[in-house]
Amino acid sequence: MSFTITPLVMAYGPQREKSRFTFLHNFGEKIDLPYVSWLIQDAERGLNVLVDVGCSAEEYANHIKPPGESKLRHAGEEFADVINIRSLDDLLADHGLGTDDIDFIVLTHLDWDHCMNLPLFPDTKVIVQRKEWDALPPHPFIASGFAPDYRYEEMAVGGLELTEGDQQLVPGLDVLFTPGHTPGGQSIAVETPRGRYVIAGLCTIWENYFPDPEILKTAKYEVIPPGGHTDLFAAYNSVVRIRDEAGTQLLPAHHLEAFDMEPVG
Ligand SMILES: [Zn+2]
Fold it and tell me: Distance, CA 17 to ligand 1 centroid (Å)?
């Protein structure tokens, strides 16, 4: 079975601190961070899957930004508000799909920027790693990176399905257990006409997996773990694993090229 992968970028976080993604590197640099829902399609079998569902400016303003505050402050950074590009349902409509046409949703992890558009899909099965689910509620230090509790309570009464470690979802689509950014993060390996691609589920960019060679000249490490992590060494090992499995056929959750890249396959 073979799938195409299309990034649907519905919104972005403007001018985010880059070291939030590349731990202890790139202090003071700012990046526009895409919020991506990855559309995975097998046209032959009529299968449509979303990996993550992203966020919108409205969801952010109504559920994430503290009431009465002009900005969210989280772990040392004052966040500029989320900016919409196009709504996720409009982006799906471009592909002839309604929200009802999505067979299931895989969440790489439960940070708000990956799950806040779930109310668009009230009847759709949602797949999360058991270790991620069992770690709720989040530790206070990372709690403002997560959705409010009621969003997870809504998920629990819908069609929640829990994965355990590496697992095949359907032939050609596998989850890889890649913890460390959060307790139960998962990545998604996808068979495409161009070979196997991995959507890396940690909040990372290309540079985490393929750092500047200048840095590596004197460093003893090979990759850069994400700035946000619940287990630094597990996060490092997950980044190594994904790089080794994917090579350059790798799509980080916040791939900066997602704004204007061609679909895969
Ligand atoms: Zn993220």
Answer: 13
Are 180 and 230 contacting, i.e. CB atoms less than 8 angstroms apart? Answer: yes
pLDDT at 36: 98
Summary mean pLDDT of the chain:
95
- pTM of full prediction above 0.85: yes
Report the side by side order of strands in the sheet with 160-163.
Answer: 83-84, 4-17, 30-42, 47-51, 104-106, 125-129, 160-163
Domain spans, the chain:
4-259
Quote the CA–CA distance of 180 and 239 in Å, as a whole number.
Answer: 9
- 51 in Cβ contact with 74 (< 8 Å): no
The C-alpha atoms of residue 241 and residue 246 are separated, in whole angstroms, by 8
Per CATH, the homologous superfamily of domain 4-259 is Ribonuclease Z/Hydroxyacylglutathione hydrolase-like (3.60.15.10)
Tell me the residues surrounding ligand 1 (ion) with CB < 5 Å: 111, 113, 203
